[in-house]
Amino acid sequence: MRTTFMAILLLAAALLNTSAQDLPTSAAEYEMQIVSSYADRDLKKLDKLLSGYYKSGLYPVDVLMYNYNELQGMEDWGVIVMSSAESLIGKLMLQRVLNVHRDKVVVCTELGGLDSLTCERLDIPMPPTTWKPEETYEQTIRWVAGHAGRNVYFPFTDSPLFKEFPDAMKERIYNEGLTMRYSATPYDNIAVKIRNLEERYLTDYLKLSLQPYNEKKDHRLYRRFTPGMLALNYSAIYMDMLPYYREHRPDRVEWLQGLNSACQHHYSNISMNRLFNTE
C-alpha cells in the first residue's frame, strides 16, 4: 500500500533523540558503522544502527524523501543497482525502519554487489569472479537483467557512469525521472516520467523548509548528495519535461514551473535557465 506524504512527514516530525550509550553520537559515526555492518551482512546490528540513526534526527529528511521517491518511481519487485553507499543508507532506512518499499531489492557495488543472500533472494546464479573492478557496475546491471526477470534500475545520481557504457547498452537505458531503467524492450519512457511526476513522486515537501540545514556544516560521512544537489536533480527532470508540457499539457506548465521554482528558492538557488538554456 502506498505510503502518503503526510504519513512520512509525521514520522519525520516524530524523530526522537536517543540516549543509548552504545549507539554513535554523530552522523559520520552512524554512517561508517552502518556501511560496515552492511558489508559484513550483520543484519541485527544494521537494523539497530539504522533505527538509532533515524530516531536521532541526524539524517536529513530531504535526503530521505529523495530516496523514497527513487523507490516510489520503480515498478514493484524492481532491482536498483547503486555505485555508492551514499545512495544505499536512505533506502535501507526506509525499508528496514519505516517498512516501506520492502519488495524492492537494493544492490550496492561499492559494498560487495551481488552476494549470496541477494542472489538467493533474486533466484539467480552468483556472478563470475573475473569481472574487472571498472566493469563491476555495468556487468552487475547486465547480470541482474539477464537472470532475474525483474525491472532493473540505477539512480539518476549515477548517470555520469552512463557515459562509460558501451553504445549497445546505452540504447537500452531509459530515463524515468530520478532513476534510469535498463530494458532490452523499447517502451514509452515519457509516459512513465509523466506518471512519476504527477502520480508517484511526493514533491510537496520541496515547498517546505522541514528543518534548518547548512551544507557547509554537515558532518555526515557520506555527504555528496546534499539537499542542494538533490534539488538540482529534481530541476533537471522539470527542465527536461518542460518543453513536452508546454506543447502537450499547457494546463500543467504552471504546476511544473512552480516545483522548479521551489527547488531553486528553498534549496540550491542555482539558475536552471542558465544550465539548461530554456529561456
Characterize this entry briefly.
The protein is of the alpha/beta class.
User: How much helical structure, as a percent, in the residues?
Assistant: 40-55%
Oligomer: single chain
* Beta-strand percent range: 5-15%
SSE order, as H and E? HHHHEHEHHEHEEHHHH
Q: Give the end-to-end Cα distance, rounded to a whole number of Å.
A: 41 Å
Shape: globular
Give a short account of the largest sheet.
5 strands, mixed
Catalogue the unreliable spans. 15-19, 269-279
Number of helices: 12
**Class derived from helix and strand content:** alpha/beta
The mean pLDDT is 85
Number of strands: 5
The order of strands across the largest sheet is: 2-1-3-5-4
> What is Rg?
19 Å
Walk me through the structure.
The protein is an alpha/beta fold. Helices cover 49% and strands 7% of the residues. The protein contains twelve helices and five strands. Strands 2-1-3-5-4 form a five-stranded mixed β-sheet, sandwiched between helices. Helix 3 packs across helix 5 and helix 10 packs antiparallel against helix 11.
Q: What's the helix and strand layout?
A:
Elements (H helix, E strand, L loop, with lengths): L4 H9 L13 H14 L2 H14 L4 H12 L6 E4 L3 H11 L8 E4 L7 H7 L13 H12 L4 E4 L11 H4 L2 E3 L3 E4 L6 H12 L26 H22 L4 H16 L3 H5 L3
Parallel strand pairs: 1-2, 1-3
Antiparallel strand pairs: 3-5, 4-5
